[in-house]
């Protein structure tokens, strides 16, 4: 076992089987929040098994070797706790929150769920029906359709291009053995990060995790993820749909979280599309009346990411709205932000970042995420310093680097 103490007063321990444990002691409230991250996510998927990550995570709480779905739900509800799971592009996540006196009991249940799910056939069929219903519903939403088409243009055959819920075909084909194999292959102790924040003693929490998880050993050789290089296509795809508005998306290839340009792109995304004072909202909605909705986003990814701007507009204004989106991105390449614009953008992103670390759940979430992405909890401070150091010239250089040729997806009665 190796032990280290971060500058953020986070106790960090690596167990002998590779599990990383982070503990932040915060006695202010009688609550303990825990995030159990497993490195992996939907980037492990193939087209034939698209959506299997989501299915596995939803089914973890539907039955284990020792507990039925009902028994798990009753135990969580009896304690007045919360427990949930999710799958993202780069990791799996199980979260729970409880009062301090019940922490060990919920941790024991969590160990059972993560290590010993049994994927009952009846629960698989129920979850399959629910997922197929959700896929059909998403297939009717213009935003989802436009975005999935854009993902194909940005990523090509990379797993990031696959729909997070899967497809009607892939979900229908996944069977119990597929789920068991996926769990046995990718749920491994050395991939696990357990992040805890709240009224808990670090040494006691670590001892409890050692007792419940310390004997977790996997004999199978770790399978390396297949490496895919995104195949960006700078094309425009228009999809006809009889709707009341047109949805237009512009997507640019963008770097991963490890890039030196990551913080600058995060600031640009906030400047362009975050809130009622954002550049896109003010210019395209408030001043020109072109948008029902308008925004920009830059997802955090371990592999190649994307920078997306989008607008919902009336069909007869679609061409003007598209030109407006393009013009705002191009403006960043040709004009420096004013000192006021840059200071306002920094203030907004730093303020919202600080507000995102107010609760034990938020603290456990963000520290666990940085550890899972192999940046370390120190990135919490590094990120703030990177944002603060951005100059007007940095913004222009990054815009000139990445806002070159866009992939475009448009859907509506056009």
Summed up:
The protein is of the alpha+beta class. It is built from 15 helices and twelve strands.
Structure explained in plain terms:
The longest helix is centred in the N-terminal third of the chain and has 18 residues, at 121-138. The chain is 44% helix and 19% strand. Strands 1-2-3-7-4-6-5 form a 7-stranded mixed sheet, sandwiched between helices. A 5-stranded mixed sheet has the order 8-12-9-11-10, with helices on both faces. The N and C termini lie far apart (62 Å). It folds into 2 domains: 2-213, 2-Layer Sandwich (Cytochrome Bc1 Complex, Chain A, domain 1), CATH 3.30.830; 236-412, Cytochrome Bc1 Complex, Chain A, domain 1 (2-Layer Sandwich), CATH 3.30.830.10. By secondary structure, it is an alpha+beta fold. A hairpin with a 5-residue loop joins strand 2 (11-14) and strand 3 (20-25). Helix 1 (52-59) packs across helix 7 (176-186), helix 3 (103-115) runs parallel beside helix 8 (202-213) and helix 9 packs across helix 12 (339-355).
Q: What is the molecular shape? A: globular
- CATH architecture field of the largest domain: 2-Layer Sandwich
Compute the gyration radius: what is it?
Answer: 23 Å
Q: How does the major sheet shape up?
A: 7 strands, mixed
CATH class of the largest domain: Alpha Beta
Which H/E pattern describes the elements? EEEEHHEEHHHHHEHEEHHEEHHHHHE
If you average the pLDDT, what whole number results?
Answer: 95
At the fold tier of CATH, the topology name of the largest domain is: Cytochrome Bc1 Complex, Chain A, domain 1
Class by alpha and beta content? alpha+beta
CATH superfamily grouping of the largest domain: Metalloenzyme, LuxS/M16 peptidase-like
Distance between the ends: 62 Å
Helix content: 40-55%
How many beta-strand elements? 12
């Amino acid at each position: 076992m190796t032990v280290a103490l971060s500058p953020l007063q986070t106790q960090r321990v690596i167990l002998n089987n590779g599990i990383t444990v982070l503990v932040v002691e915060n006695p202010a409230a009688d609550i303990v929040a825990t995030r159990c991250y497993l490195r992996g996510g939907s980037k492990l998927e193939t087209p034939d098994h698209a959506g299997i990550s989501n299915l596995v995570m939803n089914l973890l709480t539907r039955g284990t070797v020792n507990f039925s779905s009902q028994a798990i739900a009753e135990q969580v509800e009896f304690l007045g706790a919360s427990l949930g799971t999710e799958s993202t592009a780069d990791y799996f996540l199980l979260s729970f929150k409880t009062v301090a006196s019940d922490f060990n009991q919920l941790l024991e249940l969590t160990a059972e769920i993560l290590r010993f799910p049994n994927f009952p056939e009846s629960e698989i069929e129920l979850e399959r029906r629910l997922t197929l219903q959700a896929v059909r519903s998403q297939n009717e939403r213009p935003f989802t359709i436009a975005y999935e088409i854009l993902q194909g243009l940005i990523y090509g055959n990379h797993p990031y291009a696959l729909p997070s819920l899967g497809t009607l075909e892939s979900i229908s084909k996944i069977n119990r053995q597929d789920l068991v194999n996926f769990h046995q292959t990718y749920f491994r102790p050395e991939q696990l990060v357990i992040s805890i924040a709240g009224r808990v003693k670090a040494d006691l929490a670590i001892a409890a995790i050692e007792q419940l998880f310390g004997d977790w050993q996997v004999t199978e050789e770790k399978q390396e993820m297949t490496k895919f290089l995104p195949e960006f296509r700078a094309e425009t795809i228009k999809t006809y749909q009889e709707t009341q508005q047109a949805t237009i998306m512009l997507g640019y290839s963008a770097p991963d979280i490890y890039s030196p340009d990551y913080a600058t792109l995060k600031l640009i995304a906030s400047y362009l599309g975050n809130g009622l004072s954002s550049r896109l909202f003010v210019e395209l909605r408030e001043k020109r009346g072109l948008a029902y909705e308008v925004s920009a986003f830059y997802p955090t990814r371990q592999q190649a990411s994307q920078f997306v701007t989008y607008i919902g507009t009336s069909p007869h204004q679609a061409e003007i709205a598209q030109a407006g989106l393009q013009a705002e991105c191009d403006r960043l390449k040709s004009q420096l932000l004013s000192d006021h614009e840059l200071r306002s953008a920094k203030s907004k992103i730093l303020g919202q970042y600080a507000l995102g670390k107010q609760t034990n759940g938020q603290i456990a979430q963000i520290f666990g995420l940085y550890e899972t992405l192999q940046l370390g909890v120190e990135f919490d401070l590094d990120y703030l310093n990177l944002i603060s150091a951005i100059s007007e010239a940095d913004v222009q250089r990054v815009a000139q680097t990445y806002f070159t040729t866009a992939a475009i997806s448009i859907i509506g009665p056009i």
